[in-house]
Amino acid sequence: MKRDFLAAALVCVIAVLITGGCAGNSSAGNTPQTSAPASESSVESQLAPAESTDASGKKVELLFYHHMAEMTEYLTDFCDDMTEKYPNIKIEQETQKDTATLQVKYAAGDDPDLVLGPQTQQYYDQGKYLDLTDEYAEIISQLDPDLMDVITDAKTGKIFRIPQCINTFGIFYNKD
Fold first, then answer.
1. How far is C-alpha 133 from the chain's CA centre?
2. What is the pTM of this model?
3. C-alpha to C-alpha distance for 26 and 79, rounded to whole angstroms
4. Is 4 helix (H, G, I), strand (E, B) or coil?
5. Tens of pLDDT, residues 119-135
6. CB 136 within 8 A of CB 120
């Protein structure tokens, strides 16, 4: 249970910090952020129980799976910073080139603790992801309200993920 809490807390911290890095300025073609992002201090207040080791002094090791090779250096620095700040938590990264590897890991029972990647109904239904709805309500309440439909599971109404960043997409037409 404590491991689940630590993993969920780190998911929230990672999402908040990465989202902050993706936010940028509002410019042509970008939608301005309509609500303030969760501040690092509010995230840390929810992380407080994870700051100390358990009674046995046991350290916690978490496996962080992602398929974003372009972010590996940033995420390595982030994981190192988290370990420095919370010495009882060691985060090991596993970077894969595609999301198919995650399916193989789940089928083999080698579930990662943290996932930056695909969120499918199949994984929700199998109980692969922790429900963040109540435990992290303060952080979730600080997200842009327009994201709620995207991050809320349609079947259960629960929230199992926090967005990593917000992208805009468009189609460009060359009239020549």
1. 14
2. 0.62
3. 29
4. helix
5. 788 888 888 889 999 99
6. no
